[in-house]
Amino acid sequence: MATGYDPIAVLMDEHQRFLRRLGEVRADLRRLSEEGRGRRGLAISMSTFADFLAKDVDGFHGRKEEEGLFPILVRHIGSEGGPVGVMLDEHELLRRHQKTIARNVPKLETDREAVEAWTAVSAATDSVDRLLALHIEKEDQVLFPMARAVLSPAEMFEVAQICQEIEVQLGVGPGEGRPAPRDLR
Ligand SMILES: [Fe+2]
Ligand SMILES: [Fe+2]
Description:
With about 180 residues, this protein is mainly α. The chain contains five helices and no strands. It has one domain (about 5-170): nmb1532 protein domain like (Four Helix Bundle (Hemerythrin (Met), subunit A), Up-down Bundle), CATH 1.20.120.520. The longest helix has about 40 residues, at about 40-75.
């Protein structure tokens, strides 16, 4: 590739970063509840997580897949009912869980006994934890190898250009994601 930019490798690096972040969120939740710091700490942690899902997972990485890789891949394998369709459905589901978390976090901040809000947030976080890990596995194991097999070098270059444009637009280096949000705890 002329630019030396491999869009699939970059997306896979980002996946690894996301999996590390999921592990941190899990550990955070465990620690905060064990330390008995109440829902204030949890609310801040969840708010940071919602932001990460919206901006890094969806707005940055997801956008590179949906605007860069997927439209070019469907030229070869179609969309409806195929693996790209499944990936798009999962992106949508992740967006829905993100909205549930973001919508309920302010309730946790104002009312520590907001049981319903807390139930909704933990259910959505658990779902994201499972869904995102499986989603990444499917992309890494199935969709990306398929893309490598069917895309011509010119098409891979096209994907690379779109991905790089998005990175420039958002001011983010390849594979880096946005700078880590400030730790508010
Ligand atoms: Fe994806
Ligand atoms: Fe992905």
